[in-house]
Design goal:
The structure holds two protein chains of two kinds.
Chain A lengths: L7 E5 L9 E7 L5 E7 L2 H18 L5 E7 L4 H15 L26 E6 L3 H5 L8 E5 L9 H14 L6 E5 L5 H9 L6 E4 L5 H18 L6 E6 L2 H5 L1 H6 L6 E4 L1 H8 L11 H14 L2 E4 L8 H14 L3 E4 L3 H10 L3 H19 L5 E3 L2 E3 L1 H16 L7 H4 L1
Parallel strand pairs in A: 3-4, 5-6, 5-12, 6-7, 7-8, 8-9, 9-10, 10-11, 11-12
Antiparallel strand pairs in A: 1-2, 2-4, 13-14
Chain B lengths: L3 E6 L5 E6 L2 E2 L33 E2 L2 H7 L7 E4 L9 H11 L5 E5 L10 H5 L3 E6 L3 H8 L7 E3 L2 H9 L7 E6 L1 E2 L5 E2 L14 H6 L2 E6 L19 E4 L20 H16 L8 E4 L3 H17 L3 E5 L4 H8 L3 E6 L5 H9 L3 E3 L2 H4 L14 E3 L4 E3 L4 E2 L15 H4 L5 E4 L3 E2 L2 E2 L1 E2 L14 E4 L2 E4 L4 H6 L7 E2 L1 H12 L7 E10 L5 E8 L2
Parallel strand pairs in B: 4-13, 5-6, 5-9, 6-7, 7-8, 8-28, 9-12, 12-13, 14-15, 14-18, 15-16, 16-17, 18-21, 19-24, 21-25, 26-27
Antiparallel strand pairs in B: 1-2, 2-3, 10-11, 19-20, 22-23, 25-26, 28-29
Helix pairs in contact in B: 7-8
Classes of the chains: A alpha/beta, B alpha/beta.
Amino acid sequence: MEFINEKTAIAGNKGKGIRSDCFVTLALTTEGGLQIEIQSKVAVFFGEAIHKTAVSVLEFFGIENAKLLIEDTGAIDCVLAARIEAVIKILVNTSKAYLPEIYAANNYSTTKERNRFSRLYLPGNSPSLMLNAGIHKPNAIILDLEDAVAVDKKFEARFLVRNALRAIDFYGAERMVRINQIPQGLEDLDYIVPNNVNLILVPKCEDAEQIHVLNMRINELKKQNNITNEIWLMPIIESAKGVMNAYQIALSAPNIVSMAIGLEDYTADLGCRRTNEATESFFARSVLVNACRASGIQPIDSVFSDIADMEALKENVLKSKALGFDGMGCIHPRQIKVIHEYFAPDSIEIEKAKKIVLAFDEATAQGLGVVSLGTKMIDPPVVKRAVKTIDLAINMGKLSKDWRNEA
Amino acid sequence: MKKYDKLVSNAAGRIVPTEINGVDQYPYMGIGKHKPSGRKYAPQIVSCSDYPADGNKTIPSLKDALIKSGLRDGMVISTHHHFRNGDLIAIQIFDIAKEMGIKDLVWFPSASFECQSVLVKYLEDGTIHHIEGSMNGPLGSFTSEGKMKGLGVLRSHGGRYQAVQDGEIIIDIAVIAAPTADAFGNATGDRGSAACGLLGFALADSQYANKVVVVTDNLVPFPCIPWQIQGNNVDYVVVVDKVGIPEKIVSGTTEITKSPDRLLLAEMTAQFCDEAGIIRDGFSFQAGAGGTALSIGIYFAEILRARGMKSRWARGGSNKYLVKMLEDGLLDYILDGQTFDLEGVRSMRENEGHVNTSPFTSYNYHGKGNFSSMVDVVILGATEIDVNFNGNVVTHSDGYLLHGIGGWQNCLHAKCTIIPIPLFRDRIPVIVDEVTTLCGPGDLIDVIVTERGIAINPKRTDLIEKMKNSSLPIRTIEELKAEGERICGKAAKPKLSDEIVAVVKWVDGTILDSIRKVEK
């Protein structure tokens, strides 16, 4: 199919190493009906299905005459539809949206307290990485519209992210989206708030005002679209100003469940180098942890960027945990296991928690109001924390459910 | 002569010819059902008085050797794949045949590789009539499109030995590329500048072919020690400049995977083996080629190390990972069938625990037993698995020939056969209603591990019982199929013609399935 002297729109990816995606080129014509050409490595199996989807999307937007070229590397249906919708919307002004069905198992919301040890970053315009993200069992996945998407791909990525939130099974992971910086990021909200997002990451957050602006728009969209479940926020602190305002930001809205720190931008802002020892960011990380604890939300650490070095990642996790963090970002699925393993309670913590819980059980059985372990009195918050540690250990497979009888 | 005739429905319900390339065949009758009687095929009687008393069998060129061996129209020529993609000899044989105007040869390789794709021209001009072995890449496409003059025959490594012993195929000339040999014909693969490991695939040919030619680029004074091929079976020895490219024995399928999804498959497989009680002190295993299968060895090693246990023996394809286990004391013996990389070659030369074997010891149907059924667990690949656990390893879902059978069919006889595969590849579901080509009966395939769940063959109630309380996602095969189709959509069936272009033989020589011509 050739496009000569025609106004075309393009979307998607093609070329070496691209899989599970498609590259589409569209030109609107005045006659000749829908001319659709499909070049696909799976044409034998899905040629007809691809054609059917293409016709369905074009007709949905009322397009009767067009030339559409689809260069496909095995895109699943919701990806294909996102790409075609993107090219249509480059050429046609419409408020309609071609939405894939929400997959039934994706109808879950998340709680404020849930574990957020690991959250896997997925570039918002790369479908191949989204498909299998959930099988690695991260606590959350982040569909990233910000730094991982090139400027000229921002528009099409929104359709892909929207469709992914609805139709791709992330197997129980919390569905997060990192929007663009406020105010540009406000436009992203239209695509995600009505479409099954659990949590929004707010990059380069510097003050409480940004959160207010954001929440106003979120609430507007929730109302318009009848969305009743909570949409949580996780501001990312990435500048000196953000660090100084961290506590105010943390307190600025009840739907903030955690705050994260982004050290690449932060060290650039300080004008220093990011080092492995991380002394340059010690203050910022401590401030963040304190701001979060003071406001009752989870402090989350920056990503560790050497994806090949699992030993260094482990060291990093242990340091992070020692500073008081509750989790960190991942940029590769192989990091998830290490992060879970070392953020989870270790054997010393578990043993201590077991003793406390058993002492509490005994005190309750004897009708005592005071719990003691040996000669030491145990305060209620300590018992509560021990119970949480035990629950976590059971959840992480580090302790049998039946531990009381196995001891 | 018709390419094939006398179609019947075999015990697997597949329509297969019982006459191919003019020769009568048995249809598949079920696992272990076909038991021919009588005596095995025997090679021609020779007398040592016909051979040089001083033991010098060298001859100036490969062409001279082929002429002296009586090369003529219609002969069966065998070659071997111990150099994998670094073979230099097979093409030369057919170049010579073409130059001599010879027609209608049958090529009987132990496997074919990408480097032999140029042979398509000899299939086109009639120098080669058909291939009995494996047909991949351009040779596979040529066959699948129905262009080969004769009917292709695909056999397992064990099936190749069986076919020779049954006299189903009589090798006229076997040409054995040997990294080191002496003038008497003793030959070895474990040393010399082109060292590639072992020459086990050529063993049957050396014993049964009418004429045996050894080609080497490293002629040593008698005796060549060790001798993997005995000079007493060899007619001629040819010295050439370069016999093969050993670096190319390492192919893409013999490197460990870096894909997080494949590593997850490997990890799940290892965990399955652990929970099912397969990994224990003294257990045995075999992992085929392919990045996922290789990675499983790494996880096995981790588990053994953590428990202070070791494996008694592993079947090769050997590679650097297996060698490391041997050298770290996590494994007593590698019983090696082929070397997948140069570390394997080094180890075979240096380590007494690294033993070379052959399809006779490991896979042959007409042996008094063989190793394949003694292995505790084997990890294999597949292109498709169906809801009855039947496996396809030779054709792509679109019907094109893609891989040879290799040792795959033979390995299915292990105590536990596990196939780790992604649920879909580029939107193409791997678990299907019915395999395009039946290569392995579902009764022999025990466990399918996918990234979205593990299916245990309902016949393996013992495994199902053991995994009852597992944290692994145990599903039915139907559930896995449904999940794949939910993500990808239901794939349309490729259009295949009724015309048969090749057959898949079972390990006992019977015909398991037919491969149909692909409609372009």
